Every structure is written in C-alpha cells, then in structure tokens.
Inverse folding.
C-alpha cells in the first residue's frame, strides 16, 4: 500500500477515536516510512546498539572510533572478547561492548543471516533477537520496523511513541489497545507519533 493510502487508513481509524489525533495526522501526513537495510543485518544491529541512549552526534563519533580501531579488519571479526578494552576505549559502555561482542559471536556460531531472518514470522524473528544478551523487546521492535520493514509493530516500550499517543487520545486507555484500531499499520502510527513529538525513537537506535 502506498504511503498516501496508509495515511488515509490512519485518518479513518482516528476519526472515531480522537479529534486531536486526527488533526495531528492531517497536519503531518502523508509520511514515507524510512528503511535502513543497506548494510548486512549484524552490522546494523551492532551499530544500533552502540547508538542507544546517546545523541546522534555522539553515536556517530563513537562509531567512527570503533571503525578506526578495527584498522581495516572486518568489524564482526574485530568484535571479540579479546578486544573488549579496545572497544571500551572507543567510548562504548561495558554493557554495549558485551552486547556487540555477543551479537558477533551469535552470528559466527549460528548465523544472523539477513535473508533467513527476513523470511521468519515476526514473533520468531523477535525471539531470535531477544535471545541475544543485551537485545531487548524495544530493540527487536526497532529492527523489525526499520530494517525489516514490518508495517504493523506497535513499540509500546518506546516512551515517546506511547506518551504522545496517550496525550492525543486518553491517558486512561492503554496504548496497546488504542493502537489495535490502526492495524495493520501500527508501525506507521508510531512514526507519526515520533514526528508529532519531534523526537526520534528512544535511544537513537534507528539512526
């Protein structure tokens, strides 16, 4: 479905729910959903982890140092336990360093093949991702939305999306329940909520 058709679907769902939400969607849309799948999935996931909870500028600076520390070696080969101190020196926290190394180890041991993951149903893909130490539901949601292009993910763990939807509808109604009205385009609903709040998803993981 085109982004214009998705926009109309969201407007139709909002019309009977909240004049404030409908007005926000009218003002913002139609929006195009960004895709960020130009690099192999394990690389993207590692970089997303590295950028969580810090500004875009800080994340870019740290990742530049991470890439430089590899000295031309493939990054996934560089992400090993023996290089923990080197990666920490680039500005990664201990937890992020452990997660990135675990992602690389997982890819080496059982594979995080992009095409294989893309072929999985969302619940199975999510389970594969959240089985990795340090990769939680929120990160899996962001991967499903922005890398794999899933149109119907409501990231209820994202504070900006959840609070914005609450403000535009009702704080007394759970946002998971509210978002159900917008199936099968809940990912787009989240996109509009971030745009309305003028805020990226928590943690900058999709940058």
């Amino acid at each position: 479905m085109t982004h214009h058709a998705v926009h109309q679907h969201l407007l139709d769902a909002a019309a009977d729910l909240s004049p404030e939400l409908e007005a926000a969607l009218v003002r913002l849309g139609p929006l195009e959903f960004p895709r960020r799948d130009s690099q192999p999935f394990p690389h993207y996931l590692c970089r997303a982890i590295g950028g969580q909870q810090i500004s875009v500028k800080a994340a870019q600076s740290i990742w530049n140092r991470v890439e430089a520390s590899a000295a031309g070696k493939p990054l996934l080969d560089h992400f090993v336990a023996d290089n923990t101190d080197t990666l920490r020196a680039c500005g990664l926290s201990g937890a992020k360093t452990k997660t990135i190394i675990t992602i690389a180890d997982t890819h080496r041991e059982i594979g995080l093949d992009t095409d294989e993951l893309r072929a999985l149903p969302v619940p199975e893909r999510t389970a594969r991702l959240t089985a990795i130490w340090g990769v939680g539901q929120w990160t899996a949601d962001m991967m499903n939305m922005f890398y794999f292009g899933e149109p119907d993910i409501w990231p209820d763990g994202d504070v900006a999306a959840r609070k914005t939807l609450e403000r535009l509808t009702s704080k007394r109604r759970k946002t998971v329940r509210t978002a159900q009205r917008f199936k099968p385009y809940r990912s787009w609903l989240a996109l509009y909520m971030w745009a309305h709040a003028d805020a990226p998803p928590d943690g900058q993981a999709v940058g």
In short: Residues 203-207 have pLDDT under 50 and may be disordered. The chain has 13 helices and no strands. Residues 94-109 form the longest helix (16 residues). The two ends are 25 Å apart (CA to CA).
